[in-house]
Amino acid sequence: MMVFLNGKFVSEAEAVVPVGDRGFLLGDGLFETVRVAGGKPFRLAQHWERLARGAEFLKIQLPFTAKEIQQFAAQLIAKNNLPESVLRLTLTRGAGARGYSIKNAGAPTLAMTLHPLPPVNPDEPLQWRLITASHRLPAGEALAAFKTTSKVLNVLARAEAEAQGADEALLLNTNGEVAETAGGNIFWIYQDRICTVPTGCGVLPGITRAVVLEICQSLGLPTAKCVIKPEQLRKAEGIFITQSALGIVPVVAFDGQPVATSPLVDQLASIYNEWLLREPTASGA
Fold first, then answer.
1. Contact call for residues 37 and 277 (beta carbons, < 8 A)
2. The sheet that has 109-116: what strands, in order across it?
3. Domain 2-116 - what CATH class?
4. d(Cα 95, Cα 205) in Å, to the nearest integer?
5. ∠ CA 136-138-144, rounded to 5°
6. Which residues, listed in sequence order, are joined to residue 8 by a DSSP beta bridge?
């Protein structure tokens, strides 16, 4: 597998970063996960925009322009012949002296890697069992707007879900409100309205989340951004998760109890899959 590292295409074995890289030592960095469909990174511009905003917030200088990244990504996909895959962009502050100060940090590190799509059984619809994690996200956290490489809480939440025989973990914030899942945004359907959590609750404004809201707008489907507690979520007429790698994933069980199904979820998933190959012009979020 070929990877992109700091302006060069090298084999995975040759792609190394210094042991003093702050991304390795401190989680001092950002990343984006992009679905590649038909050889094209889906909504790469929106992913890069979010990463750029995060870099500005963290005071990390971007080493490449959006146009250069688009070109490099296309070359990486072609070199690996992976037209259906997942592209990961990772940006760190680079190597620096020991400690928290950023004064002596060197040049940033930027890597792009390609990964096969998560395995899905074509004979079985993709459906997830969801449990509420014991870990909590801080409500109103400014860093929640970006995908930082400090994701230990998400790792622990996913491990907790898997230990209970579930597929994904629901994270509440410190107010006890529904926030997001370990690896995606949460949606639910109530009275034929497609609802999701407002970003002020400590939620990452996901790119796939934005696409779903665009689809709803294009279909004239009502949407709402609501603060909700888990006991209210259990009364939903349907629940689904959005993430870049898998798109829209229906939830069939929540904390061991079956979840109602709604035809709206299948409708949204079908249109989302069409949009993957037929990129519309949209500003996103």
1. yes
2. 8-11, 2-5, 109-116, 85-92, 29-37, 40-41
3. alpha beta
4. 29
5. 110
6. 5
Distance CA 136, CA 157 (A): 9
CATH superfamily for domain 128-277: D-amino Acid Aminotransferase, subunit A, domain 2 (3.20.10.10)
Cα atoms in the 13 Å half-sphere on the side-chain side of 217 = 9
Show the tokens assigned to 162: 């898997």
Which amino acid is located at 249 in the chain? V
Q: Which residues contact 127 (CB under 8 A, 6 or more apart)?
A: 249, 250, 251, 252
Domain boundaries defined on the chain: 2-116, 128-277
Q: What is the pLDDT of residues 80-124, one digit of tens each?
A: 999 999 999 999 999 998 999 999 898 999 999 999 998 877 778
Which of 189, 186, 191, 188 has the alpha carbon at shortest distance from 201?
A: 186
The CA distance from 211 to 218, in Å, is 10
pTM of model > 0.70: yes
Which pLDDT tens digit goes with each residue over 162-187?
999 999 999 999 999 999 999 999 99
Tokens of 163: 């230990």
Rounded alpha-carbon distances, angstroms, from residue 185 to 56, 87, 178: 24, 19, 10
